[in-house]
Amino acid sequence: MPRILPLGVLVSGRGSNLEAIIRAIEEGRLPARINLVLSNKKEARALKIAAQHGIPAEFVDPKAYPDRESYDLALAARLKEAGVELVVLAGFMRILSPAFLEQFPLKVINIHPALLPAFPGVEAQRQAVEYGVKISGCTVHFVDAGVDTGPIIAQVPVTVEDNDTPETLAQRILEQEHRLLPEVIRWIAEGRVMVKGRRVYVRRD
User: Fold this and answer.
1) Residues pairing with 89 in the sheet
2) Which own/partner contact pairs does 44-47 have at CB distance under 8 Å and 24+ positions apart?
3) b/e map of 156-171 (b: 16 or more CB within 10 Å)?
4) Which one of 53, 112, 141, 178 is the catalytic residue?
C-alpha cells in the first residue's frame, strides 16, 4: 500500500485547484488526503467545496491577530494539530512569513499562473499578455520568503494566442494547473522529489 500523504490546503477564492486535488484523490490518482482547509476569506467558495466533500475547513480571520507573524503562526499551529505534512497553496492570496515557513521547511508548495521567474506576483496572465510573450504557462514551486521565488518543481507551457485576453489565457492556463498540481503532489507523496539548492530533481520511475 502506498503511503497516504496528509495535506493542508490554504485558499482565498473559488477553489478550483482544491477541486482538482479532491478529484484526483477520489479517483485514486493521488495517494493523499486533505486533513484541513484554511482560508483568510470568510466567503471563499473553496470552504464550501471542502465542506461538500466532508473535509474540515475553517475561516481564520487575519483581523483577529495583531500582526502577520502571529496570524501565520496560528495557521501553522492548526495545520500541525491536524497532522499535516505538506501545505499546498491553492489560490492563497497572502505572502507567508518566514515564521510560517520555519514550521514547514520545504513542505509548502504553490501553483502560479506563469512560467516563473517571469511574471511573479498578482495578475500574471495580464502581465504576460501585455508584455507580448508567445508562451506562458504555470509553475509549481516550493515556497520561500520571497514572492514566487522558491525552487521550481515543474512547469507546463501554454501558447499565448494573438487574440488572447488576460481572461482567455487565464482559463487555458487554469486547465493545465488542474492537471499539474495533483501530479506534483503525487510525486512528493511517492518520495520522488529531491531539492539541492535551487535545483529540484524528480525521480522518474
Assistant:
1) 10, 110
2) 44/11, 44/12, 44/13, 44/14, 44/15, 45/13, 45/14, 45/15, 46/9, 46/11, 46/12, 46/13, 46/14, 46/15, 46/18, 46/90, 46/91, 47/11, 47/15
3) bebebeeebeeeebbe
4) 112
> Which triple of cell numbers denotes residue 112?
502560479
Closest CA to 125 of 175, 182, 185, 179: 175
Q: Nearest to residue 60, comparing CAs of 81, 86, 83? A: 81
Q: What order of strands is seen across the sheet that includes strand 86-89?
A: 57-59, 32-39, 5-11, 86-89, 108-112, 135-142, 152-159
Joined together, the cell numbers standing for residue 169 give 489565457
pTM: 0.96
As a whole number of angstroms, the distance between CA 122 and CA 90 comes to: 14
Superfamily for the 5-202 domain: Formyl transferase, N-terminal domain (3.40.50.170)
- d(CA 58, CA 45) in angstroms, rounded, equals 12
Give 22's contacts (C-beta < 8 A, 6+ positions apart): 34, 49, 50, 53, 55
Catalytic residue list contains 53: no
Per-residue pLDDT tens over the stretch 89-101: 999 999 999 999 9
Q: How confident is the model at residue 44 (pLDDT cuts 50, 70, 90)?
A: very high
Taking the mean position of all CA atoms in its chain, how far away is CA 47?
15
